[in-house]
Amino acid sequence: MKSLDIVGPQLALLVAAGLILVIDALWPKGRRWIPFVALGGTVLAAMYTTSWVARDEYPEWFAGTYVLDRYAVFFQYVFAGIAALVILASIDWVRSARRSESEYYALLLVVTSGLMFLAGARDLITIFVALELSSIPQYVLAGWGKDERSSEAGLKYLLTGAIASAVLLYGMVLLFGYTGTTHLSGIADVLRGLGGDQRPLLVAAMLMVAAGFGFKMAVVPFQMWVPDVYQGAPTPVVAFLSVASKAAGFAVAMRVFFEAFRADFLVDDWSLIFAGLAAASMTLGNVMALVQSDIKRMMGYSSIAQAGNFLVGVAAVSAAGGEFTLGASAVLLFVAAYAFTNLGAFIAVIAISQRIGSDRIADYAGMWRRAPALALALAFCLVSLTGIPPTAGFWAKLYVFNAAVRADLVWLVAIGVLNTAVSAFYYLGIVRQMFLGDAEGKPGLRPAPGAAVALAVAVAGVLVLGILPTPVLSAARDAVEIFARQ
Amino acid sequence: MGVFLAAEPSVPATPEWLLWAVLVVPVVSFAAIALGVRKAPRLAGHLTQGAVLASFALSVVALLDVVAADGGVAIFRHEWFTAGPLSVELGVRLDGLSAVMLVVVTSVSFLVQVYSQGYMAGDPGYGRYYAYMSLFTAAMLGLVLADNLFMLFIFWELVGLASYLLIGFWFHRPSAAAAAKKAFITTRIGDLGLLAAMLLIWTRGGTFAIDEIHELALTGALSGTTITLFGLGIFAGAAGKSAQFPLHVWLPDAMEGPTPVSALIHAATMVAAGVYLVARFFPVFEVSTDARDVVAWLGAVTAIMAATIALVQTDLKRVLAYSTISQLGYMMLALGVLGYVAAVFHLFTHAFFKALLFLGSGSVNHATNTFDMRKMGGLRKAMPVTFWTFLVGSLALAGVFPFAGFWSKDEILRDAWHENRTLWAIGLGAAFLTAFYMFRAIFLTFFGEYRGGEPPAHGHDDDAHGHLIDPAHPHESPLVMTAPLVVLAVMSVVAGVFNMSGVTDGFGRIVSGALPEAEHHAASFEWGIALSSLGVAAAGILVAWAVYHRRVIASSTLRSAFLPIALVLEQKYFMDHLYEGLLVRRLFYGGVCRGFELFDRYVVDGAVNGTGSAVRWAGDRLRMIQTGEAQAYGAAIVGGVVVIVVSVLLANPS
Known about the structure:
The complex is a heterodimer of chains A (486) and B (654).
Chain A: H1 2-6, H2 8-26, H3 34-55, E1 60-61, E2 66-67, H4 70-97, H5 101-120, H6 124-142, H7 148-179, H8 184-193, H9 199-217, H10 225-232, H11 235-260, H12 264-290, H13 295-315, H14 326-356, H15 367-370, H16 372-386, H17 392-406, H18 410-436, H19 449-467, H20 470-479
Antiparallel strand pairs in A: 1-2
Helix pairs in contact in A: 2-3, 2-5, 3-4, 3-5, 4-5, 4-11, 4-14, 4-19, 4-20, 5-6, 5-11, 6-7, 6-11, 7-8, 7-9, 7-10, 9-11, 9-12, 10-13, 11-13, 11-14, 12-13, 12-18, 13-14, 13-17, 14-16, 14-17, 14-19, 14-20, 16-18, 16-19, 17-18, 17-19
Chain B: E1 3-4, H1 16-35, H2 41-68, E2 74-83, E3 86-94, H3 96-119, H4 126-145, H5 149-167, H6 174-205, H7 210-219, H8 224-241, H9 250-253, H10 259-267, H11 270-280, H12 282-287, H13 289-310, H14 316-336, H15 340-368, H16 379-382, H17 384-398, H18 404-419, H19 421-446, H20 479-494, H21 506-512, E4 520-521, H22 527-549, H23 555-561, H24 563-570, H25 575-609, H26 621-627, H27 629-651
Antiparallel strand pairs in B: 1-4, 2-3
Helix pairs in contact in B: 1-2, 1-4, 2-3, 2-4, 3-4, 3-10, 3-15, 3-20, 3-21, 4-5, 5-6, 6-8, 8-11, 8-13, 10-15, 11-14, 11-15, 13-14, 13-19, 14-15, 14-18, 14-19, 15-17, 15-18, 15-20, 15-21, 17-19, 17-20, 18-19, 18-22, 19-22
């Protein structure tokens, strides 16, 4: 049983998903408990993870193809937390959507378990399977809404996702061809022995792998699907994939690049590639976000820009310097901060747009008068997204930029700081609309209880991380120890 | 010039809780109002005033402690958190500079708030107003007390936020909302410099603590280039907040806020922050000649440029606004010519007379319902208290003996004389212009025939006073408004005594204690410089009298004689046109944003249906999937991979 013990958190989620389907089929009266079963699944998963942390044991599974190390644990908490918040925020929304509730929650739990597998996978095949396990239900979720826009979003997400998976697979095949193994540390050993003359095809392989993960992270130029899917898919689903899917993309990408591609002659290449992608993502995302009038589309471009900020941390490795993992730890902090912040913003958007029936930014005018608490919470999250203290987003940005400065990427930091200034325009533009705009006697509105609780938790997370980032930061630093160079 | 060697300063006896209390009390009042007291506006007002008065009392105690310790420094520092290479501390610092600033900020803020009871009476946002005022004051106090750059930056941004809220207080007026935005964005540009300076000092010096940065600068532990870059970054932040050329454009527009807010911004809080910042890091500028020259010359340019624009303004508040810019330029000039004491002293005296002048202009507005000097005149008789106090403020600003401004301005000019004669001449020219435009304002506002004011608007929109104003019969303002004027007028007369050159130098000694080197050069009085500055002030007043009172030459004749110059001045050297029209509208929106938008519309969408439909989510989108938009997206992924691989290999072929 030891072997199943390792994947206990995932099993907890899958059991909850199965239970939900059973309840739906056999016990119609119990359907109203479905969201709470789902919530219970996430809590149980987090508790299971905690039990491993308490045991202070970090075992491997199936000849090292899957591990439960501190890095995986960090992300397990992140994914469980995101899923719990999204479930809470969805209760009212899903009920009013008049589609099969059980499907929604079961799929969400399956995705979450897939993401947890992804964070612990150390073998190309495991990675690919985990990626698909998490992706396919997401395509379905994106098309879960009743209107055509949702179907279109689901289909587009599926098609582009399939292409990205194909590219990733080509990259993996190339790697396998070179090294004869699919295990990450095995690949690293073989690559270290290879000379620079093998570089051109290796760069191509690396980039194909990066493209597959880049699709999940939503970075330029693999971001084309983002605005359409964000606008069309159901908002709670968008909230989920904007944080969880993105975080998983970074989790697996960092493991692959820091572990398999750690040879010096490769680190310089991929550091440069990611730096370039970071600059492009930040700039394109922010400038495009500036001209949007639909809040979900704007959040889509904003998430591209934020992915660029994450990438700054990934790029901040210096092959020569001693602080090989500083950037990686900064990314982990950013993941946690961004999870709270973006979820908070999205939950507020869900609560508001569901009540006013519109996603137009102009319709947020005067929201301060109609729903003071909601407006304040949304404003706080937007301030955090901009990166202004005392919020989680501030520390995240500070650490990422700090890592970049130490890795001699001052030009990238300069671009990042300029982009921060640009992003302030549209983030704070919404704040301005809400606080200074005219509501013209429109009625007040209240969020559903579940959404209110989720929002309060998210905002509290942003604030606590903003004042005391130390615990999360030290967890992040411990988590990336596995990448350290001996 | 005698060198005064202070008796070894000791550590002030002030307990730590007192310093934190200075900061926390207004924060508590802000929180209380925000959480509910707002609904009882009068209580909100009293709460804020009480809080600031308490802060003021504590600040005075702190200042007295510093005086007793002969300018010693007390630092209380706590570790906030450490994580690997980053360690951030939370601390307060009490020394001559911060103690003086604390007293100035709390005293002016208190008087402004008393005055606001009359000025803002009946405004529907009365409670909100006081909440913002508490926040503004608290932020400024935190900025002054901060013992490290990091904490200072947090409060620096809070000051920016509070000023945004206050300038846009009457947000239903588009002009007010626009002004608030302009102030926020313009100062943010300067803040990028400050942020860069922070990153630089942290990566190179590994610290944010003010005293350690002083050490780094003075011991030469960092390269000259680093120090210069750091100094320039600091100055960029200061130039944004203190409205130095070329970032001065926001300050005149900030007049859209309620007049007491302008008084606070111009005297004690927002703009003082910039000068304070440069003074705080003065050792850096002592070491770096290049950074110092930039400060001095931009200060001089600002001083003269703003003074010339003030000549042609017809709005009383705008005259004062440009005058503030000009005086801030003066302070920067002083810092740039090593006149640390002179700059801080001028900041100190200026706070009183500029607050006085703004509150005076508010009082005039209260009676006439306008700030347009062409609609005023003859108010001397109707508003005696306002007139006399305004006159005192103007004399102080013009630098007439023995008012406070004379002593501080004289000291700046003397420091400039010894450092650089050109800068001295520019300063002297600005002094002439200052005397001229202030007395132009006095003659237009208070002398001659009353020109009727502005009839009250029916919409109850303009400076929304709740009670009736009868501009046809102007009257003196109520006691809550005139009493602060009188107090400030007294300060404008006597504030000079703390540092009369050659007579007293207590101020200089205390303030110098904030610098690492303990020695203080007591200023000596120099007759030539004093007489020349008095001479130009008298000349300025005389010319204003001749043109605007005796009307020896009609001002319109003067204008047509110098028409091209007048036009340039009236358009404020076309700076607003340059920023708004060319940079923002043409280049940014017209160029960058439009470019990306076109790309999205015609290349991304257009690749599919060739026409580039602007409607993004119409029902026929479903058809578009089948025609292959998703293919375009997929092609971008594959194409992206190819392009990047090729470019990486081309860029680094080895």
